[in-house]
Design brief:
627 residues; alpha+beta; Beta-Lactamase; 6-stranded antiparallel sheet
């Protein structure tokens, strides 16, 4: 409610200013005809001050909205880290991997450094460590670790110098990573270590997200950690702040006032190297030390910047775990008020002209400068409120026109970034829900039915089927969604046969838009209709095609939906590969059991034959003695 009232008050003030400016225009026409330079001087000064204030307000709104948006980006990025580390720490396969590594380590009887060089470690790591390495590579994390309850690093996706070391007592025990790991293991609360220069990762600025790992009984068995390179933060800092101002900059600082991102105005890298001790950073640090609940500065201030020039800047607090950071948005004062300085020079020149010329130019400048700035201010308020559909039309080619163009570019970038975030959230949500569908021990038929039902519902398809590759290299339908088999349809396809077989051979998605009417139909209680689009996507693991997904829809398949199937295809293939491997293992066990029973029966027959032979031998001996 308070925020809405403030917005209404600002709108009323701008409206009153506009009315006052319009009224003054008519009066100025009369007064400048009666009096010459005195009224011209007064009105010119008022126009200049009002224009400068509007520029200050516009720059302030731009800095505040940009700092807040960049802080939200950092927070969103950290939430993704926390979500990833939580998901991986609760992953059954990762828990089993750590338990097996710990068991093998105890059986090995050597130090952790020797154990990670042993054959037993290599065998376990090679067999089960692929998922963590793939996850680290896919999401571009610096490294991933499995740490047992004693602090021993038993797994590292990169296998650097910290593999086999002890974080609690070894040579890396004085790092932020080690202290955070010890704290997380003690409290059970996931945490972030802040960024530090970490030796095993080539002395790169790296932060670590740590989460505890529990077994089925809820006992702590160790930790899972993800290494995050500071360049992820650095790339986010200046991705959107293209205001058209050369001196504009957004950067991140920590509690030690050192930069956590690179400065665009410095030739060398500044992450964890440059300390920014300014009025702005000290004000933020005081808020943090006083434990103020919220510190989101809404008004920019002028101070000496980190490069030795006066700047206009704001800050916005952001927390990753229990680590505090500040997003600083700055622009040099001289550049921020360049338009006002130029306007002042114009006013001075106009004051030297005659009353009529001054009057004409005053009216012209008032309309040329004030109105675009008012439009820009209103649009900036709407953008600050989250409305990214704003675009202002300024036909002038001066600094105001450039500012309007820069504002439009900023709004377009904000809108595109928001749409991209929504797309990424949609992809991640679908991937998580699909993993939930595929979790647990299931037979191929049940897993196929669950996967195709979820994909059809999530992607808005009206009909679908999933085909799995059998031992004879044929694709057999194992699950379907709203599928009605036609007379010509066959449930089994050879490789290269039909669209299903061809998609498996090509190993890439196949989209058919002009579908024949008798190819497939969407059925309901009210009637039948053919889908207009057919999408076939093969899914494979380690270069081997495991099956093909076929979806039909009356609507076109977007690139986002096709991309979702391509990204999740590997996890689907892995799931079916695990199910098929489990079935093969059960068949092998059954065959072994049958052979054991046959061998036992053979042993029994042999024993009986030996007993009969022994009786005959005794009988023969008895007859011999009697003779």
């Amino acid at each position: 409610m308070t925020s809405n009232r403030n917005q209404i008050d600002r709108s009323e003030k701008r409206g009153n200013f506009k009315l006052l400016l319009t009224g003054l225009t008519g009066k100025l026409l009369l007064w400048f005809l009666l009096i010459a330079l005195i009224p011209v001087t007064t009105v010119s000064l008022i126009s200049y001050l009002n224009s400068k204030n509007s520029l200050i307000q516009a720059a302030n709104d731009l800095l505040v909205s940009t700092a807040r948006f960049e802080a939200e980006k950092v927070l969103s990025l950290s939430e993704r880290w926390m979500l990833d580390v939580g998901m991986q720490a609760r992953n059954k396969k990762n828990i089993r991997l750590l338990k097996d590594l710990r068991k093998a380590y105890e059986a090995n009887g050597q130090s952790p450094e020797k154990f990670v060089e042993s054959f037993s470690w290599l065998e376990i790591e090679d067999e089960r460590g692929g998922d963590l390495r793939n996850f680290q590579t896919t999401y571009r994390y610096s490294d991933m670790f499995l740490i047992d309850s004693e602090g021993n690093v038993l797994f590292s996706s990169l296998g650097n110098d910290d593999l086999g070391s002890n974080l609690f007592s070894g040579k890396y025990s004085d790092t932020l990573f080690a202290r955070t790991a010890a704290k997380v293991f003690k409290t059970g609360i996931s945490g972030f270590s802040d960024f530090e220069i970490y030796g095993p990762l080539n002395n790169r600025a790296t932060g670590f997200v740590v989460h505890d790992m529990l077994d089925d009984e809820g006992h702590k068995i160790g930790l899972l950690a993800i290494g995050v390179h500071a360049r992820q933060i650095a790339s986010a800092m200046n991705e959107l702040f293209h205001s058209g101002k050369k001196s504009a900059e957004v950067y991140l600082v920590g509690a030690d006032l050192k930069m956590r991102s690179n400065s665009i105005h410095a030739k060398e890298k500044t992450i964890l190297k440059k300390r920014v001790d300014t009025v702005q950073t000290r004000a933020w640090l005081k808020y943090e030390e006083d434990n103020v609940a919220v510190d989101h500065q809404k008004k920019a201030s002028v101070y000496m910047g980190p490069h030795g020039k006066n700047v206009l800047g704001v800050h916005h607090s952001v927390h990753i775990g229990d680590v505090s950071f500040a997003v600083i948005a700055e622009i040099e004062e001289q550049e921020a008020f360049a338009s006002a300085v130029e306007l002042r020079a114009i006013v001075i020149v106009l004051l030297l002209a005659t009353g009529v010329v001054v009057l004409l130019f005053a009216v012209f400048l008032a309309r040329r400068i004030a109105r675009p700035i008012l439009d820009l201010s209103k649009s900036a308020d709407r953008v600050a409120a989250g409305r990214f559909d704003q675009e202002i039309q300024i036909k002038s080619r001066d600094e105001i026109g450039k500012l309007g163009k820069s504002f439009n570019n900023m709004v377009n970038n904000l809108r595109h970034m928001t749409e991209e975030d929504q797309r990424q959230n949609w992809l991640k949500t679908g991937a998580v829900q699909l993993n939930d569908v595929m979790s647990g021990e299931k037979k191929p038929g049940a897993l196929s039915q669950g996967v195709i039902s979820f994909l059809a519902g999530y992607l808005g398809a009206q009909v679908g089927a999933i085909y799995l590759m059998d031992n004879n290299n044929r694709l057999r339908m194992e699950g379907s969604y709203a599928f009605k088999k036609s007379k010509q349809a066959a449930p089994v396809f050879e490789a290269g046969e039909g669209l299903i077989g061809q998609a498996a051979v090509d190993k890439k998605p196949l989209l058919v838009t002009d579908v024949p009417k008798d190819y497939l139909s969407v059925n309901s209680g009210l009637g039948d209709a053919p889908p207009r689009n057919i999408l076939l996507v093969p899914f494979s693991h380690e270069g081997e095609v495991k099956g093909v997904i076929e979806l039909g829809s009356v609507d076109a398949f977007t690139e986002r939906k096709i991309g979702f199937l391509e990204e999740t295809g590997k996890s689907i293939a892995v799931a079916f590969g695990m199910v098929q491997s489990g079935k093969a293992l059960r068949d092998l066990l059954e065959e072994s059991r049958e052979r054991a029973e046959e061998l036992q029966a053979s042993d029994e027959e042999l024993r009986q034959a030996n007993e009969e032979l022994e009786e005959r031998s005794k009988e023969f001996e008895s007859k011999t003695r009697s003779l």
